[in-house]
Write a structure and sequence with these properties.
9 strands, 2 domains, about 20% strand, Arc Repressor Mutant, subunit A, 3-stranded mixed β-sheet, alpha+beta
């Protein structure tokens, strides 16, 4: 078992993307049950305070990530450029996360404004993706969140999204001016940039 744990550790460490149990089982030609047991032991081992990283699961896939308490040190070392998402982008992302799969028209109906530029921005950062087309007139594209969305917001899967009331997503067009003065306070790392919820960047034009 120790050899298997070490092998899985090396496999996950060498991967740029989260690795699924099924992938590990196929690559190493071992049972899914053995992989799960090894992952459990690996997870427990990295919870020890002597480690600065730990094993994180995202929607059934595993990757090594740094522990949250070392985020400021890592950010300082890399001196990441901050790319800010507007409140409009964060609102649109929230709507997609809770109502996916959802079309652009449905998003615009909820927000009361055009969403094309915002969808392009969220797609550029890999937070949303096209999931197919809705079986209705015109077969519009439907959008959903990605694995990267789960990683950046530290969610094992979508069931970990905070519970909200349906009316909380009903953002009226008349609220746009007030919303534009709001800012978030959480940073996430996207493609080498730190992205937060503040206003104002060339990368995310306001609507």
């Amino acid at each position: 078992m120790e050899d298997l744990i070490a092998t899985i550790e090396a496999l996950i460490f060498a991967s740029d993307e989260p690795v699924s149990i099924e992938e590990i089982s196929r690559i190493l030609a071992v049972s899914v049950r053995d992989v799960k047991e090894a992952l459990d032991e690996l997870y427990t081992a990295y919870l020890d305070k002597k480690h600065g990283i730990y094993l994180k699961e995202y929607n059934g896939r595993y990757i090594f990530v740094t522990k949250p308490e070392y985020a400021s040190v890592i950010k300082e070392m890399h001196q990441k450029r901050i790319t800010r998402l507007t409140p409009a982008a964060l609102e649109t992302l929230a709507i997609i996360a809770y109502k996916q799969p959802i079309t652009r028209a449905e998003i615009e109906e909820i927000r009361g404004v055009k969403a094309e530029k915002t969808l392009l921005t969220l797609s550029k950062y890999g937070l949303i993706e096209e999931m197919g087309r809705k079986e209705t007139i015109g077969n519009p594209i439907v959008y959903g969140t990605t694995e990267k969305f789960l990683e950046h917001f530290d969610l094992a899967d979508l069931s970990y999204l905070p519970e909200i009331l349906p009316e909380d997503l009903q953002i009226a067009a008349g609220d746009e001016e007030a919303t534009a003065d709001e800012s978030g306070d959480s940073d996430i790392l996207i493609d080498g940039d730190t992205v937060d919820g503040h206003i104002g960047t060339d990368d995310e034009p306001e609507e």
